[in-house]
Amino acid sequence: MSSNNLILEKAADIIKSGGLxxxxxxxxxxxxxxxxxxxxVKKIYEAKGRPSDNPLIVHISSLKYLDELVLxxxxxxxxxxxxFWPGPLTLVFKKKPIVPDETSGGLDTVAIRxxxxxxxxxxxxxxGVPIAAPSANRSGKPSPTRASHxxxxxxxxxxxxxxxxxxxxxxxxxxxxVSNDKVYLLRPGSITKEMVEEIIGTIEIDKNIFNNASPxxxxxxxxxxxxxxxxxxxxxxxxxxxxxxxxxxNILAKSAMFKDGIIKKIGILATEQTKDKYDNNMFLILVVxxxxxxETIAAGLFKMLRKFxxxxxxxxxxxxxxxxxxxxxxxxxxxxxxxxxxxNV
Length: 345
Ligand code: TXA
Ligand code: MG
Hints:
binds magnesium ion; binds threonylcarbamoyladenylate; ten-stranded mixed β-sheet; five-stranded parallel β-sheet; 11 helices; alpha/beta; globular
């Protein structure tokens, strides 16, 4: 048996005896437990410090497990599964009673994901049960895209971390609710709204994707109402035409640095195209990715938000992105990281 195989055997034994294992997926690292065992699932909420009304995604390693978990799979859902599974798409179905309330957050639906990452697939397969897994970060922190991020957030609280290198996509899966006639986009991700609409036609979009959830507009994905992805630093997004954005960030960053008579540490979230337009003697400039390859920005976002914390930055100024294609998901996460602190120029 190869050493990788031994690691996965050990991980599966931990799951079978009710423990917690962090594992890589193509989106972000997950914190897994036996989805059908309420006692195991409760440990996930404890380790993360996560509110228990926020349901978990159930991960499967083969379509054969789906019927056991969900009541009905519509034709639309089948078309989406054909096109995008395995992959970074989560589908919400009506659940069967076998799925405990602890996993579904008391809802009558359950979110299912079939990841394409091979380590994830092998791990789930060896466990022999569906795996409930939220992102493997402390609640409220940016999702982990490296084993070291999980280590930093949760090491003492979980039984094992499987290191599978960097996550390919870097943002959590797209979530679609297919439990009713109308399909809703609940969380944008790397499978874009445009890609989905090409397969099944126009879909509805949960308005909370763009703005902060207000008390009278509860997001359909309960997790979307919580503060998320927040670094320690205060984050400000500056949005608009790129040249004006750069000029504005330079002005804001300088004045923030010398405000209140103490010198503050200022970070700038820049891109390949703009990194040389800021003074790197004054500010910590981190390049999130290449504007012409949006997927690089998605892949770098959480890593860079964590890096500002690592360097004890007080305030971050971030360039905004357009909200189409993967940009919708990037801005959704960035806006949450900023607590909707956005300056339009
Ligand atoms: O890419 C991902 O989806 C990662 C990896 C590990 O697979 N997982 C992940 O899980 O992001 P988590 O727990 O961080 O986010 C799950 C989201 C939450 O916003 C939750 O409210 C929503 O899915 N959700 C789960 N079950 C749901 C349901 N039955 N109906 C609506 N939303 C649901
Ligand atoms: Mg999460």
